[in-house]
Amino acid sequence: MLTTIIITLVIVAPVSIFGYIFVKNVVMKRKGDDIIKNAEIEGENIKKEKIFQAKEKFLQLKSEHEAFISEKNAQIAQMENKLKQRELMMNQQSSDLGRKQKEVDTIRENLKVQMDLVNKKSEEFEKLRAQEIEKLEEIAGMSAIEAKSHLVETMKAEAKTEAMSYINDVMDEARMTASKEAKRIVINTIQRTAPEVAIENAVTVFNIESDEIKGRIIGREGRNIRALEAATGVEFVVDDTPEAILLSAFDPVRREVARLALHQLVTDGRIHPARIEEVVEKVKKQLDEEILETGKRTCIDLGIHGLNIELVKLIGRMKYRSSYGQNLLQHSREVANICATMASELGLNTKVAKRAGLLHDIGKVSDEDPELPHAMLGMKLAEKYKEKPDVCNAIGAHHEEVEMQTLIAPLVMVADAISGARPGARREVIESYIKRLKEMEGIALSHPGVTKTYAIQAGRELRVIVGAEEVTDQQCEELSTDIARRIQDEMVYPGQIKITVIRETRSVAFAK
What domains are there in the chain, each with its CATH number? Predict the structure, then answer.
């Protein structure tokens, strides 16, 4: 029995195994066929989709190309139309030019004929005019030249009278409408400049080693010197003076900037517009720092503390400003010390007096409101930067523009006069001053009818006295104008000069 079971197992087991393997192979084969079939179907679908996309892309490109071709054809057609229109216009213009040329030729011929007629008429007119002149000379008893001379003299007298009347009207109108401008000019000229030594104070001489450096400073076609003048605001005068260049400007700070910048450029050797601008900006910053340092050092030397930084800068700027050749910073230091000395003698506050003396001329170095006198401007600046009322009043009153309200104010005025009047302090030469006044009086005396002349107000006004029998009222107006014109042409003077012509008639009788 056991043997039968073993034999059966031996027979059945291989058959089962073989059947299992066969069934598994059949199932696997069917699955593979299904996968291949599905892959073929999917591949066919992808192929159809790609073909469809390719057809769509082709149709799109085809439509775009056709649109591009249509647009180009339209542009070509438009250009052809324009060319045809232009050709038509040119043909029309050509025909118009031909027609106009014919018209011009016709007009020219007509003008020629008319000119011939005009020439003939002119000849006839000249003959008739000569006959008329002969008849007029015969009737008038004088020649044409004499009549013309008489007419010219008459017209000249009338024109002179009318001209003087017009001048008087214009001058009256100018006096009424230009008062403000005149005040500004007088203030700037009299109070803010040093006119007697303007040339000496407005020019700085820059020495150079050789004339070769002049060429480098000028640059190709003058570009370097133009860049220097534009950057500094100073005129560079390069002439035949050997080994020297003149720097001309009325602003001493700008002149100092130009001098220092030129010194650095010559020392460095690189001179071109870009380098010039760089050096000028650098020098300006250095000079601003030096101005501030000068102001601080001055305040420390005088024992003045608590000044606003802007006032300290203005004090430093005084170093580069002069009045009649006197350095403004040295003048202000002198005034401060004189004020302190007098204040101590009078038992007043020496610190306030010294402070007012140092600040009394700050209006001369400020660029604000140039229409104000420098004393008023200085007072305004002191008030702006919170100085004490005593100091502000002393600054504004040192030329008596405002009323003196404290005892410090007359001290500042007296100290200012002492510092300026000290022998050698200023360059006003008495001989040249007297010579100018005599020359002014001599110009007025050279006119007929003038009996006396007086130059007053330090040469700013000229009084001219004329004889009442020799000069009429109308001639007085002409005389003042003539004297003013001669003074302008022949003299050099600061500010402006007022010419006053006086004609007076007196009748004297005695009762006995």
Answer: 195-290 (3.30.1370.10), 303-421 (1.10.3210.10), 431-503 (3.30.70.1350)
Mean pLDDT, the chain, rounded, equals: 78
Q: Residue 106: what residue type?
A: T
Integer angstrom CA distances of residue 302 from 22, 292, 306, 404, 512: 126, 16, 12, 25, 73
Q: What is the 3-state secondary structure (H, E, C) of 102-119?
A: HHHHHHHHHHHHHHHHHH
Among residues 235, 228, 229, which one has the least CA distance to residue 204? 235
E strands present in 306-349: 322-323, 326-327
Q: What's the token pair of residue 456?
A: 């007053």
CB 360 within 8 A of CB 394: yes
pTM above 0.85, yes or no: no
3-class secondary structure, 400: coil
Closest by CA position to 362, among listed 321, 418, 306: 321
Q: Write the DSSP symbol of residue 209.
A: S
Neighbours of 308 (CB within 10 A): 14
The pLDDT value given to residue 187: 39
Place of tokens 């009818």: 449
CA dist 203 and 186 (Å) reads: 23
- Cβ atoms of residues 375 and 407 within 8 Å: no
CB 209 within 8 Å of CB 243: yes
- With a CB cutoff of 8 Å and minimum separation 6, the contacts of 416 are 335, 360, 361, 398
The answer on pLDDT for 115 being more than 50 is: yes
Distance CA 409, CA 395 (A): 7
Are residues 413 and 310 in contact, defined by beta-carbon separation less than 8 angstroms? no
* Token reading at 302: 């005088």
For residue range 362-392, what is the model confidence (pLDDT) as tens digits?
A: 888 877 766 678 888 888 888 888 888 898 9
Structure confidence by residue, pLDDT tens digits, 342-370:
888 777 888 888 998 888 888 888 777 66
Gap between the Cα atoms of 270 and 176, Å rounded: 56
Q: Which residues pair with 203 in a beta bridge?
A: 248
Contact 23, 15 (CB under 8 A): no
